[in-house]
Structure formats: structure tokens, C-alpha cells
Amino acid sequence: MHYPEGITGTLPATLPQIFPSGHHTVSMFERYTIDANRCLIHDSILRVIAAREDNLNYYTYSNYRILDRFELIAGGQIDQVYEDDEHNRTLYKIRLDQPLRKGQTAALQYRAHYKTGYRPREVRRAFTLRYENVDIAVQFHPTQTPASVHFCIWDSYTDPNPIQQVPITLDQAGTVHRFVPYVQQSAIGYQWTW
Question: Which of 6, 8, 29, 152 could tie 165 with a disulfide, CB 3.0–4.6 Å?
Fold first, then answer.
């Protein structure tokens, strides 16, 4: 499956932004890791952002409350943690290492560690703003590879039924991945069966 034009507009509405966004994502490489117990242990992300305005100081990361901890590896410091009870998510306001002028870029590297025993059968990333050069992968433990994996597109943040799904084959290392030129106001990811 190839998306030369990107994926856009499958989500009906966007979640409200608690902290305004003054950037766009130039590239994002996301790697989920599944262990021998079929548990999602972490999600490693390398993201490059570009400022849309002068004096961009912050970036905000959000995730549903299934994390044990959030680890910022490079690019800034966690300045504030905000609990969004209405949408069952936690937001991390990250102060960038240096303020950016309009058009300047910065790289952020972080890892989301999931709660022990968390055994999903899918990973889904919702993109409200435009993200360019998106590469999402899932690495399965070599002794616990799924019977089938599908790359999926959803029109919902939570509905388990994708609007489009395509079977994919794991590579020799037990990984699946897809590159998409851009994603905006859509949800993409993977579902699998054991």
C-alpha cells in the first residue's frame, strides 16, 4: 500500500489544543516495541519540528493514560504536566533547548513507557495537525510474532473498526513499518491477531 498523496481528513473533529501549537512536524519516526509476553513496552519517537512563528519555546506531547512514564531523551526539558480529564489524556509541555525563529527546526527524541501488562492488539496514532514524512513501525519479539498484521486507517479515535486495512508481512527482524508522505486529521496504525 502506497500513499503518494498522503492521508488526510478521516477524523471528523480534532481534540482541543490545551497549549497552542506554533510548529509543524517536518518528519517523525515512531517505533513501538512488543515484548515476549505480547506486551507493548514502549514507543520511541524521533521528531523534527519547524517553527511557524518567531520565538517558539514549547512543544506539547500528549498520550492517553496508559503510560507508566514519559522519558524525554533530547531536545528540551519537561516544563509542565497537564491532566486533561475530559479526554482521558496527559499532556507534557516541553521547553525546547533553544527558542526557534520562524522556519528553524529542532529535533526531539522521547520514549513513552507503557504500564506493565498492557497487551493491545493495535497501535493507533491520531494526527490532528499536518505531519510530514511519517514512518511508523512495530517491532515484535522474535518468539512472539503475530499470525497477521494490517496497516489501518480509522475515522475515529476509539472505534476498533478501521475504514481501510491492508495486510502486511513482517520483515526478517519481526518488524512492520509504513512510510506516509504526510498525515493530517487522520488516524493510522496497525492491528494484529495472535
Answer: 152
Instruction: Look over the chain and give the mean of its residue pLDDT values, rounded to a whole number.
Output: 92
pLDDT at 157: 82
In Å, how far are 28, 32, 46, 154 from 125, measured between CA atoms?
12, 11, 14, 10
SS3 per residue for the chain: CCCCCCEECCCCCCCCCCCCCCEEEEEEEEEEEECCCCCEEEEEEEEEEEECCCCEEEEEEEEECCEEEEEEEECEEEEEEEEEHHHCEEEEEEEEEEEECCCCEEEEEEEEEECCCCCCCEEEEEECCCEEEEEEEEECCCCCCCCEEEEEEECCCCCCCCCEEEEECCCCCCEEEEEEEEEECEEEEEEEEC
| Calpha distance 58→20 (Å, rounded) | 9
The torsion angles phi and psi of 127, rounded to 5 degrees, stand at -115, 110
- pTM, two decimals, is 0.91
**Cβ atoms 56, 128 nearer than 8 A:** no
CA distance linking residue 33 with residue 42, whole number of Å: 6
Write the single-letter amino acid at 146. P
Cα separation of the two ends of the chain: 22
